[in-house]
Structure formats: C-alpha cells, structure tokens
Amino acid sequence: MVDNDIIVAPATAMGGAIAVIRMSGEGAVECCDKVFAGRSRLADAAPYTVHYGRIVDGDRTLDDVLVSVFRAPHSYTGEDSVEISIHGSKYIASEVMSLLVRNGARMARAGEFSVRAFLAGKMDLSQAEAVADMIAADSRASHALASTQMRGGYSRSLQSLRRQLLDIASLLELELDFSEEEVEFADRSHLENLLNHTGAEIGRLMESFATGNAIKEGVATAIVGAPNVGKSTLLNRLVGEDRAMISDIAGTTRDTVEAHCNIDGVQFRFVDTAGIRTTDDRLEQMGIERTMKALREARIVIQMIEAGCSGFEPVAVGDGQTLIVVANKADRSDDRSVNDAIYISAKSGDGVDELRARLRSTVDTERIYAGETVVSNARHFAALQRASEALTRAMTALHSGLSGELLSEEIREVLQHIGEITGDVTSDDILKNIFSKFCIGK
Ligand code: GDP
What b/e sequence results for 121-139 when a residue is b if at least 16 CB atoms lie within 10 Å of its CB, and e otherwise? Predict the structure, then answer.
C-alpha cells in the first residue's frame, strides 16, 4: 500500500456540466503533458496554477479542459497531482482516462487517494474517515460532526490522551530500569489521578457516541400504536413537506415503513410500525416481530393513541430511550386528560409543530456546532471500548499494588487501542478494510 505509481480516477459523479478527473503519483504532471496541448508544458508551470488546453489522442481532440497542477508535498495526497476539468460526459471521462492509462497511469482503487494522503502524514486515519462522512453528510448536524473530525478536532483530543498515557508509561518504565533499587518515580496517587482523568475523557467520548451515531445515521424514531390510530397519516405529514422518500420494506402484508426527514438541521429516521396485538396470522406475527426490533433499536418512541380513548398505558422504554406520547385525532375530541401527551391532528396538521419541536429537543447539537469532539464512527467506539477495558485493568493493577511492569503493559494496551483510531497503530488489513468502503476517486 505504499506505491507512488500514477493513479487516475474520476473525482466527481457524472451527469453535471463539468467532471473532474484526478491523477496523482510520481510523474503525474509529465504524464498529463503527454496528452495535453496547451500554451506551454504543465511540467514547466508553477504549482497551484490552472491551465487551459485540449486533451488530444494523436490527431483527435477529446475535450477542451482546464488542468490544475499540484506539486509534492503540498497536495491532497502529498504527491505530484493534476486535476483535469472536462465536460461532464461519461464517454469523454472514460476516453480521457483510458488515454491516460495508455500513457502510464493506472486506474485507482477505492479510497486510494485518501490512503496516500494518510500514508504521507497529511491526515490521520480518523480524519481520512471523516472525508467519507463529509461527502455523505445530509444535514447541518452530520456536516458539523464530519467537519470537526476532518479538520482534526477529534485527533487533537486523542493526541492529548495519548500524551498523558505515554507520560505514565514512561515513568513506570523508568522504574523498571532501576528495579534493583526499588525506587518509585511514578508517585502512585499522581498515577491514579492521571488514570482517572484519562478514564473520564474516554468515558465522555464513548458517551458521545449515542448522539454522534444517531446524527450520522438519522435519529431512529419508532411510531407505535393500534391500527387506524393515524400513524401513517402522521408519517406522511412529517415527511411530506420534506418530500422524503417513503419506501415499503418488502416482506409482509402489514409492513414497517421507513421515512427520513430533516428537523432543524437533524435527520430523523421514522419507522411506522405494525400495531402490536396478539394474532395467529403468521405474516402479521412477522410484522410484529419487526415492530419489536424497531422498538428496541429506536432512540425515540412515539406512542400514538386516540384523543379521548380510555385506559391509556404507556409503553415501556429502555435506558437511553425517550417516550413521546401523541394523542391523535384531537379534532374529534376535546378530551385532554393524558398528562404530557402532545395533542395533534395528523390530518389537519394541528399540533404537529409542537411534536417536531419536542423531537428536535431530544438531540443536543449545541456542543456539536461549537466544535466539541463527538464520536460518530462505530470503529472508533469499539476501539474506545477496548481502551476503557484495558484502563480498568490498569486501575485494578494499581489498586492491588501490582508491579510497575504489569501496570505499564496495560497502559501500553490502552495506548494501542487509541492509536488504532488515529492510525498511529495500524495494519494493512485495517487500512484495506476502511478504504475499500470509500468510493473510487476519493
Ligand atoms: P394507521 O393504521 O395507524 O397507520 O392509521 P392511518 O394513518 O391509516 O389512519 C387511519 C384513519 O384515521 C384514516 O382514515 C385517516 O384518515 C384517519 N385519521 C388519521 N389522522 C386523523 C386525524 O387527525 N383526525 C381524524 N379525524 N382522522 C384521522
């Protein structure tokens, strides 16, 4: 994965007025010169300049283009690179790329530009992953998350954790060098403070994952209630203005339906579920199983009842879940007896804004907009979890007076897991796994 041969790929989706083809590697500028007819050679051009000319294949002109020239080490990949802006035709793009391949480039693999940027030290692994999140961002909140991470906010938090841990480990390892003399350089109560502090920071990052993940994936919101209470009507009202896609999840006669909508900068992912009731119908049972699953996975549960109905029982929700009771068809009844319920008419839209505000208030975006580090990547969360477990073992080792050697081993493990996030500690397999999920040209 440390090649610096010349790679080429489309950098934009086709279909627009302009498409960009990107090429990087040693000799990329000279390679482009072989097919570029402009006022002067690109190889003689000052870096970070843009040049008008034609891409020619012998006598044939493929397109009029603009070429931007970047020189190592100040480019995205850290290598010599060019970006060729062509007319946004799939045909022209493929002709230009195959011409470049005939002149010494090869097609890039998925994520290969970003791998090179990572290997050149242009960004750490969490920043490279944020590039993918940035491209996938579909709301103000998910954009803010990706943007903070891409600009290195998260990396800085992790670096400061690593520094603290390295200090502890070095002190302990210094003791080992003087083991004959039984000295303790690392004051144990100071150590305990440092470990506590690190543990608290790792804990805070892990805790932030619930919000970070919800924002990235869309806040999972299940709508439950008896058949005909108005769930589909509410869903259509919530997403209608947003023109979100409503798609049936294939399978049974009474299916769950999922829809997305953006409420004040946050994506919500609604699941309209099958009513929960006992039934012998196998298809309906399958629908109910799906409802239970949607319920378990939801961050918010909207329980829908009919205004004026009797015998209201709130559904049980788990830790970290929020229950919002909505009494629908308030246009048909004046009964407002269920405390804390939001009375709405899904049909007319009355009260739905209050519901939107309540939904939005469950997601705290202030700290995200302020640039606070929030974990949104499941791989990072898993690494933090392993780091936290190793830290707990280190704490136990400290309390039971175990040797500095054992203690420092555990601390080295914490360091390793944190290093996996930034890529300080990594393997080709991990890199392949991460970057293969990127698209070509990224
Ligand atoms: P679901 O089975 O829970 O998805 O319920 P639907 O959304 O299909 O609605 C069932 C019936 O209730 C339909 O005939 C709707 O038009 C009606 N309905 C839904 N919301 C309201 C409302 O706010 N007021 C009134 N009067 N009828 C409603």
Answer: ebbbbbbbbbbbbbeebeb
